[in-house]
Design goal:
The protein is mainly α. The protein is built from 6 helices and 2 strands.
Amino acid sequence: MKRIEVRLSLPVVAPLLDLIKATSDILEAHIAAPLTLEDIDADFRAEWKAELLEGQKAELHSLLALFDTDFFINGVVSFDQANAEAVVRACSALRLRLRRYELKPISDEVLESGSVDAESIALPMQKPYMAYVFLGTIQELIIQHLDSEILGETGLDSGDYGPDEDESGGKR
């Protein structure tokens, strides 16, 4: 099984983990991507939301488990097939939450460009922005190095899809 080990700077990452943990705590009770399913039966909707929330919680726990006692001793996190998908999804949930609330004043285009100098944005948004970038970097590392494992070893690399296909080969 392919495995990635990444050494992180504790003085840089530790303060971000405080915000990531606090955001994760919020997401224990709220789905990151708001759902408007008013046309679905209320009982079914409640069960579906509960199931989505449980999955999100498990994914967040997978991500936070990377930053255990060993991490604070040696500064290394490891990604492999067993945790990659859950970690990518947890990073997405956290990034959605940060984007929707803490980083709302910054446009999507600016956020996604990665060209923002953290010191040029308002002080209250600097830490959330750095956490947003950090989580995106984790996602990129996993996708770059474990891509075929995440995709079920289909032999497809990101970008190998036709213009009208998604990762599963299905039509968009």
